[in-house]
Amino acid sequence: xPVNLPLPVADQLLPVAGVxxxxxxxxxxxxNRRDLTLIELAAGSAxxxxxxxxxxxxxxxxxxxxxxxxxxxxxxVVNTGIANAGTGELGLSNAxxxxxxxxxxxxxxxxxxxxxxxxxxxxHLPMDRLVASLPAAKAALKADxxxxxxxxIMTTDTQPKCASRQVKIGGxxxxxxxxxxxxxxxxxxxxxxxxxxxxxxxxxxxxxEALVREAADLSFNSITIDGDTSTNDxxxxxxxxxxxxxKISDAASAEYKALRDAVVELSVWLxxxxxxxxxxxxxxxxxxxxxxKSRDExxxxxxxxxxxxxxxxxxxxxxxxxxxxLAAIGYAGVNDLDVNxxxxxxxxxxxxxxxxxxxxRAVSYVEDAGARIMKNAEITVRxxxxxxDAAAEVYTCDFSYDYVKINADYxx
Length: 412
Prior knowledge:
The chain is α+β, with helices and mostly antiparallel strands. Helix content is about 30%, strand content about 25%. It folds into two domains: about 270 residues, L-amino peptidase D-ALA esterase/amidase (4-Layer Sandwich); about 120 residues, Ubiquitin-like (UB roll) (Roll), CATH 3.10.20.
């Protein structure tokens, strides 16, 4: 079961002016499953994205990058079930053909369409079924289609992930709604995840591009489930400007800072939702590292802890075998780290205890306190490197028996 992740409520998901969404069943991999989502954008929308750094990046990722460079994006199309990754030239041809088919349906150009796929790697898309289903997806387009869409982009997710926010800027209220999917093969840069955030605010193209990178760094690039960097990860920020108001184009303005904070907050929520619904997850863990010389150094230590299978399995068992945390900090690659000055705390359920200091177990630490905290569903590991003022947080989950079962049976 997801860790403290609320189910989205349809009437609490706010339409974003300039965005319509439609979902249908195309039989991409399995019958009777919503697996094809079409998103139509108003003309003039600013669209930007960040994508996986996996060198085996999927065909749709390659096409997305090319189409984004040409600008003026009018539609997105998302299929689940098959990732269209590791599919060579035919995969690229199928991604382009998908864009062309969507363009024909909506009366736009093929290069104005962004394709996204998620699912099994090394398999080709059933183009006949996909293309044949596009008219149904078009017919389903509606402004309040977010609830259906967040269901339609799921793979091994146990529940949809979608939320809305509103922010008042200069007397004008702007809406933000976003959705994400992902539960496994999750590691930053980015993960097997898709994320979409749309706002009706009039954000310039240049600031949309800057903001999507900043928001991704603080959210989707700050999560990990199993350390695997996928082939298809994509995070897209859309600003339709359909709510009106003066164009937000100055990064130093109060208007931009207010919108930036809202976008980042929603992105962090969507990223954390992926971790909370991690395959087989029973614990949500925050690894907070401070006192570093740089943020990169703090992230390096945080990821060493968050990726450790020994740490993650101990948390699943609620076993305060906390020497595993120290070991992970030690091999994180900070070669001049002084372990005699760093300190480590374990927190949860409104309680925090000092675990380690002066190169070993804290004198005040008793294992009963660690065991008590480890039973909580949400736990924080806090590390002070005592080297500087930088800090970073990484969000992760435990490893349970179900993680193995889910991934062993993924293709069945």
